[in-house]
C-alpha cells in the first residue's frame, strides 16, 4: 500500500519534470542547444501566476493561461535577443550564454521582488480522494491530469499541425527545410514559446501543490528535468515524457524507502550512469556526438 502511494506521488511529481523536460528536448532537437535558462522560466511562470491571481483575482485556469502567455513571450524574446545572434557560433558559446541568461533571470527576480519565499495563492482546494484502499490528494490528480492533457496536446501539435510538421522538418535538416519554404527563424521562435509555456505550467502546478515559491526554485527542478530529458533521449519528445516520470518515481521511492537526503543524489547518479552507458538515452538513437 505504501509502495502504491509513493508510486502515485512519483508519477505526479514526474509529470511536472516531464513538462519542463519537454522544453529542454524540443529546443535541443531543433537547435542543439541546452537551454539552462529553462528552469528559471519555470520559476517565472510560478511568479507570473502568483501576481495574476493576486492582482486580478483570477481562478485556476485563467491564471494558468496567463502564466503560459507570459513565459511563451519571455522564451521567444530570449531566443530572439540572446540565442539567435550566436546560432552559428561554437556550442560552448551558446552554453555559456544559456548559463548567463539563467543567472540574469534569477538575480533580476531577486532584485525586483526580493529574495524571500512567497505564499502561493490557494487556487484549488485540497481534498482526499479514496480509490480502493488508496487515499490520494486531489491536487496531485489535477497535476497529473493537466500534465497528461498537455502532453497529448503537444503530441497532436507536433504530428498533426503545419507548425508541428515544420518543427520536425527543421529538426531533421534545416537547409532542406529552408529550401522547402519554411521560415526557420519563426519555427525556432515557436519552439521556444511552446517549451516555455509548458515550463510555466510546471511552475504553476508546483505552486498549487506546495503553496510556496521563491526566486531560486527553478534551479534543482531544472537540473532534474534536464536529467530526465537525457535519460529519455534528449531531442526525443516521448523520451522526455518517459524520463520525467521515471525521475519522479525514482525520487519518490527514494524518499519513501531510503532517505530524503539521498533523493537528489539518486537523480544525478542516474544522469552519470546514463551518460556512461547509454549517452543517447533510453529512447534516443545512437549518435557519434554525446550529449
Structural overview:
The protein contains 11 helices and 4 strands. The protein is mainly α and 291 residues long. The strands form 2 sheets. The protein has a two-stranded antiparallel ribbon with strand order 1-4.
Elements, N to C (H/E): HHHHEEEHHHHEHHH
- Briefly note the structural class of the backbone: mainly alpha
Tell me the strand order in the biggest sheet.
1-4
- First and last CA, distance: 38 Å
Low-confidence stretches: none
The biggest sheet amounts to:
2 strands, antiparallel
Q: What would you call the shape? A: globular
Assembly state here? single chain
Average pLDDT, rounded to a whole number, is 88
Helicity, as a percent range: over 70%
* Portion in beta strands: under 5%
* DSSP helical segment count: 11
- Rg for CA atoms: 19 Å
Number of strands: 4
What is the gist of this entry?
It contains 11 helices and 4 strands, in the order ααααβββααααβααα. The chain is mostly helical and 291 residues long.
Task: Give descriptors for this structure.
single chain; 291 residues; mainly alpha; two-stranded antiparallel sheet; 73% helix; globular
Set out the fold topology:
Elements: H1 2-31, H2 38-56, H3 60-83, H4 91-113, E1 118-119, E2 128-131, E3 134-137, H5 138-160, H6 162-172, H7 174-179, H8 184-210, E4 212-213, H9 219-232, H10 237-257, H11 263-277
Amino acid at each position: 500500500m505504501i509502495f502504491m502511494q509513493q508510486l502515485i506521488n512519483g508519477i505526479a511529481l514526474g509529470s511536472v519534470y516531464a513538462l519542463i523536460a519537454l522544453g529542454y528536448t524540443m529546443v535541443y532537437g531543433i537547435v542543439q542547444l541546452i537551454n539552462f535558462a529553462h528552469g528559471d522560466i519555470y520559476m517565472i511562470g510560478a511568479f507570473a501566476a502568483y501576481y495574476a491571481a493576486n492582482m486580478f483575482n483570477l481562478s485556476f485556469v485563467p491564471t494558468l493561461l496567463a502564466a503560459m502567455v507570459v513565459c511563451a513571450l519571455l522564451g521567444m524574446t530570449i531566443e530572439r535577443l540572446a540565442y539567435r545572434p550566436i546560432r552559428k557560433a561554437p556550442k560552448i558559446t551558446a552554453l555559456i550564454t544559456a548559463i548567463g541568461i539563467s543567472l540574469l533571470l534569477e538575480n533580476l527576480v531577486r532584485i525586483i521582488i526580493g529574495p524571500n519565499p512567497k505564499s502561493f495563492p490557494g487556487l484549488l482546494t485540497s481534498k482526499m480522494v479514496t480509490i480502493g484502499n488508496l487515499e490520494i490528494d486531489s491536487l496531485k490528480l489535477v497535476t497529473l491530469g493537466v500534465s497528461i492533457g498537455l502532453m497529448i496536446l503537444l503530441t497532436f501539435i507536433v504530428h498533426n499541425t503545419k507548425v508541428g510538421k515544420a518543427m520536425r522538418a527543421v529538426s531533421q535538416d534545416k537547409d532542406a527545410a529552408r529550401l522547402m519554404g519554411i521560415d526557420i527563424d519563426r519555427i525556432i521562435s515557436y519552439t521556444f514559446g511552446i517549451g516555455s509555456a509548458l515550463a510555466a505550467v510546471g511552475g504553476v502546478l508546483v505552486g498549487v501543490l506546495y503553496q510556496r515559491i521563491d526566486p531560486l526554485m527553478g534551479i534543482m527542478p531544472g537540473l532534474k528535468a534536464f536529467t530526465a530529458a537525457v535519460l529519455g533521449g534528449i531531442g526525443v519528445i516521448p523520451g522526455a515524457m518517459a524520463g520525467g516520470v521515471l525521475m519522479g518515481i525514482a525520487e519518490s521511492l527514494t524518499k519513501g524507502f531510503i532517505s530524503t537526503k539521498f533523493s537528489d543524489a539518486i537523480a544525478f547518479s542516474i544522469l552519470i550512469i546514463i551518460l556512461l552507458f547509454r549517452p543517447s538515452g533510453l529512447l534516443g538513437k545512437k549518435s557519434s556526438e554525446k550529449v
